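Page 47, continued from p. 46.
Same chain as before, 577 aa.
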Amino acid sequence: MAPNVEPDSGSAPIHLQWGLRIPLRDGVTLSATLYLPQRRAAPAPVIFTLTPYVGQRYHDEGIYFAERGYPFLTVDVRGRGNSGGEFVPYVHDAQDGYDIVEWLATQPYCNGKVAMWGASYGGRDQWATAQEAPPHLAVIAPAASPYMGVDVPFRGNIFTPYLMQWLTLVSGRTSQDNLFWNRELFWGAKFREWIESGQSFASLDGLLGNPSPVFQQWLSHPRQDAYWDSLNPTPTQYARIDIPVLTITGIYDADQPGALRHYREHLKAASHQAREIHYLVIGPWDHGGTRMPRAEFAGLKAGPLSLVDLRRLHWQWYTWTLRGGPRPEFLKKKVAYYVMGAERWRYADTLEEITSHATPLYLHSTANPDDPFTSGSLRATRPGSGGPDFYRYDPRDLSLAALESTVDPDSAANERLVFSSVGRQLVYHSEPFDTDTEISGFFKFSAWLAIDQPDTDFRVAVYDVGRDGRGILMTHDLMRARYRESLREERLVKTRDPLQYNFEGFLFVARQIQRGHRLRLVFGPLHSIYSEKNYNSGGVVSHESMTDARVVTVKLLHDEAHPSALFVPFGQPETGV
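Result:
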């Protein structure tokens, strides 16, 4: 079969071997299922995925690649499925991945070239395996890959109850899939119950009936430190990764920060030759969409070009890098990104090249803008004199918990909480755009804030607001005040004077703002049943409870000496590519 000719589905019979045992250096054996092309003329490159979700989840991928001439294995991580050993998330994947690669290279169906496939956990363990530089690892394609201490198990050093939802999914040896996805009836209610109980975040695993040593271990490292560093590649290890890499993430992928951190760290350390074979795709997808795109997700609708056949792209990627086939036509340049609203793909040589320039829109107000209908404004002109805006956050106020438990936290189109938070937030709008305008890149928000407690958590969100007043969440960021200067060092606030807070952790966006639309900036407390709760006392947040609660007043200044601004990343003009 020619390397660039895709067979019809079902045209190439396969042989399936269940219960294959893969030996590791410490005597543990892993369980795998092998999908083997039945009509193979010679040994071929082998693809495998290493997963905690039990290999049967990727049965369809095994069939797909085996039908196209690639032996494919689904391998359960240690301690999951029928694999031996104990499952400790993220700890053993690097060495185990190395051992799997080198064992596969000796099998009679393998020609010595081994590739990896997978998303989320299966994306991260590709980086973990590659950092060990196994001699026979030939190519990886990590999708939606977390980076420890950046987006898992916290973002901005702020944990989420979702951790226990995920740890419950992977508790024991089989997956608790139905329970995991039962957000409306189970998880929303449980997280509301926890918040309303006033108990500490550290008690959550017990409240859920699933005491977790892993959860408690993670909480003992509440900021970026050497523990999290040990679970990520070092600069030296990134520099050794000189194989082709296809990084995939989505505009609404919660693990986009991790995927892009791996991407940037690799490019920073890698040789010129290695950088030339690292490609990046950022699609109009949520986390699940990075494996199987959907036109409708998170309350949004994307155009037909969003439905990239990612299985086929992977097949073309492996055929190019492993068998000398043509480069996938989709990968026109090193970076492919989808512009929502315009509903088209664009291309760039680098991630930084996507943004033409960033323009500050300064905050202004004539009255306290705590209501979307009486908001402040975002203007190109610098502010003059004027008093600060403010909100008060009382951790004992649980009035929105019942509503939030019924709202999909992943929805980008549901604004019920914004309009229910009048008096508890600050809102600013830009002027309507005169023409269709592409905003692509990373927002930044620089705010001068004064607080009267030693700590609190902030959330800032940016919306695209249509002529009908309906908003679509574009991106958001969050910050714990004690980490305003560094995510590696906490400094409690010891002054009531204003300090500058730079929010630089927004997710990448690429969206065409239609003529007549406006930007909306919403700034307020991070006060959610889906977030670790900061009671503002300055203590160890995961161990604080309602008895530690302090009311905080947050003042946002926007005068000549304290020009708070939202920096908007405008995309490059069209060049015909």
